[in-house]
Write a structure and sequence with these properties.
By secondary structure, this protein is of the alpha+beta class. It has helices spanning 18-30, 47-52, 75-85, 96-126, 134-154, 167-181, 190-201, 210-216; strands at residues 9-13, 34-38, 60-65, 68-73. The longest helix has 31 residues, at 96-126. Bound molecules: glutathione (GSH).
Length: 217
Amino acid sequence: MAQSKAPPFTLYEYRPSPFCVAVRIALNEIGTEFTPREVDLKKPRTAAFLKRSPFGGLPALVEHRPGGELAIFEITAILSFLSERFPESSLGFPDMQSRAEGGCWLSFINTGLVASVWSLLLERCVYQDEEKSEMVERRAMQNLEQQLGVLDKHLARRAFLSGAYSVADTLATPILDLFEMVEIDMGAYPRVRSWRDRLRDRPSYKGVWPYDEDIKS
Ligand SMILES: N[C@@H](CCC(=O)N[C@@H](CS)C(=O)NCC(=O)O)C(=O)O
């Protein structure tokens, strides 16, 4: 009888996290199987998990190799690893120039765009009245508008951030989804909106958010 082979990856995740969603999209782009392991954020992390993700953060990706396992934490490290590990996939960069360009955009999405959206999300959706700061919200909105303006111009000549689809777009996909929660009007940024729609049309996006499964059931 043929033995079923264990998937080559285990993804430690918290399903509603946009960073974990980004890894699911990346693994779907590659077309590889993985074992999902939900981590309860309210419980203390186990020693075994902390060996894989020393600060206890999610996502963490483990590749099972013949000689042992390779554990990777931090979203940009995970996505960069996958793009190098699977050079023939849609995540692979064809040359050094495109890798450098993709790296710039990946870094911007993870620091610049995430910082503004996250700050807005906290002010508008998470904090209670006494924790809110109008000044922080205004600054986050100003940053976001400036970033969206630059992105809109940049995307006038490209379908994706660095030309061809890359891991920068992978990370941007669930971050753009957060825009709906913070009620950003995308009407002023038509190219960003079309880019978001192109990202959502990719088969790798299907079923990545836990609420997609709720809708199906
Ligand atoms: N710097 C981390 C950010 C990821 C992150 O913020 N993960 C959150 C879930 S959305 C998390 O793990 N929070 C729990 C914790 O840090 O203990 C990365 O790049 O992967």
